[in-house]
Write a structure and sequence with these properties.
20 strands
Length: 483
């Protein structure tokens, strides 16, 4: 009997036979996350129902020296939940209990399989909601949001997942259950909570998440502005932020993204628009009213040829429907596409978008742009047809070149999708060897055996006993005392 078979038998005794999957066809269900370009069939899949079962699985993996990967809803777009071919995939999707909604403390406690939007639905009757809102919020899980430090359209004003998580229960890579943070906004000591959020499953598995709830605003107003091109829409974005107005969201879509959204959901955006902006303001009614007039004026001053103001929640939802559907919508106009994620200074938007257009033409691909304009978080969608010889390679080259442009302008290789399997190769372009060594030291402090989501984030995995930096001659083992 192989090691994996022995491990499977032992885990069946703990989880029950139905929650340990070894059948090859069933395993293929979990071969990728939302980034289907990378596929690996795991050796074993387990479906724990509580923290104790997750801890038992991780302890068994640690004892057997078998790598493990945690997965939530599988909606990630960086290959962060890509399985290990010789490892265990720990699927937390069935841990979906919303433990508590406490409006008095403005907190909610959720298991990792709870769907993002479920938290808001449970908090709304109490006058609260959960602010981070990825486009996939109807299907993405809180645990996955924690792993990737997910953002969303309203992160401009309210921040990312890390700004809303106050406590975690986690299973460390040796199977120990511990707590980081709690209900306080800023607990004393080292910020291990901040290190864990966004660590992409390399430091352990979150099994319970305490999040901050945000009070529903007194007023919400949304406008849709049509522009002839992205230059004008980008200039309007900079003008709005430069005027001291911080909207809840400023989202931009270019002509190709608009075409896709219209084909998918018939959102009715302004005819002939080369770009649209969706600007949403929320807060006290008097403040929103004053700022809304300023935003309208600035859009008009920067070339908006049509401005629509949502009359009610239904019309507001229609504005957002096109934007929220954009990633999936491009499937209506292209058989294949790559979703990219990078960040630039928002003042560089017009120039960078022109560079992307030139780059796309040079590589023989089309690029649809849809992004969080307010904080410069780009989501270029590189469109291609895999049936055409060489098209996939050209698309990959264009996608990588877009990331290089983001770095060139002082930005980042990812804003909210994470590094995962897809962008590990770009890390040395953004960070020095010393930077990467320091990050690796932190990872090894949590996971000295390198079993938690191996092969992700870092481009060149190194044994945790190795001394960072350049070497000559024999290497001396560096033990745990360094940590």
């Amino acid at each position: 009997m192989s090691g994996i078979q022995e491990l499977a038998e032992g885990l069946r005794a703990v989880l029950g036979p139905a929650r340990v999957i070894t059948d090859r066809q069933e395993l293929r269900t979990y071969e990728c996350d939302g980034l289907a370009h990378y596929k690996v069939v795991p050796a074993l899949v387990v479906l724990p129902q509580d923290t104790a079962q997750v801890a038992a699985v991780v302890r068994a993996c640690a004892e057997a020296g078998v790598p493990f990967v945690a997965r939530g809803s599988g909606t990630g777009l960086s290959g962060g939940a890509l399985p290990h071919a010789d490892g265990v995939l720990i699927v937390t999707a069935q841990m979906r209990r919303l433990v508590e909604v406490d409006p008095a403390d403005e907190r909610a406690v959720a298991e990792p399989g709870v769907i993002n939007l479920q938290v808001t639905r449970a908090a709304t009757p109490h006058g609260y909601y959960y602010a981070p809102d990825p486009s996939s919020q109807q299907i993405c899980s809180i645990g996955g949001n924690v792993a990737e430090n997910s953002g969303g359209a309203h992160c401009l004003k309210y921040g990312f997942t890390t700004n809303h998580v106050t406590g975690l229960e986690v299973v460390t890579p040796d199977g120990e259950v511990t707590r980081l943070g709690g209900r306080a906004l800023d607990p004393p000591g080292y910020d291990l909570l901040g290190a864990f959020v966004g660590s992409e499953g390399t430091l352990g598995v979150a099994t319970e998440v305490t999040v901050k709830l945000t009070r529903l605003p007194e007023s919400v107003r949304t406008l849709l502005a049509g522009f002839h091109g992205t230059d004008q829409a980008g200039a309007a974005t900079s003008a709005i932020i430069g005027a001291g107005v911080v909207p809840a969201a400023i989202e931009m879509m270019d002509a190709l993204a608009i075409e896709a959204a219209e084909a998918a959901v018939a959102c009715g955006y302004p005819a002939g628009a080369g770009a649209v902006l969706i600007v949403e303001l929320d807060g006290p009614a008097a403040e929103v009213a004053a700022q809304f007039g300023e935003v309208t004026r600035l859009c008009e001053a920067n070339g908006a040829f049509e401005i629509r103001i949502a009359a009610d929640d239904a019309e507001r939802a229609l504005f957002w429907r096109g934007r929220k559907s954009a990633f999936a919508a491009v499937g209506r106009i292209s058989p294949d596409y790559i979703v990219q994620d990078g960040v630039i200074p928002r003042t560089a938007l017009p120039e960078v978008l022109r560079r992307i257009e030139e780059l796309a033409a040079g590589h023989g691909v089309r690029v649809a742009n849809v992004f969080h304009a307010g904080d410069g978080n780009l989501h270029p969608l590189v469109l291609f047809d895999d049936a055409i010889e060489g098209a996939a390679e050209r698309a990959e080259a264009a996608s990588g070149a877009i990331i290089d442009i983001c770095i060139e302008y002082g930005g980042s290789i990812t804003g909210e999708h994470g590094v995962g399997s897809d962008k590990a190769r770009f890390m040395p372009r953004m960070f020095t060897d010393d930077d990467l060594d320091t990050m690796q030291l932190l990872r090894c402090a949590f996971d000295p055996d390198g079993l938690a989501n191996p092969g992700k984030v870092f481009p060149t995995p190194r044994l945790c006993g190795e001394r960072p930096g350049r070497h000559r001659g024999a290497l001396e083992y560096q033990g745990a005392e360094v940590f």
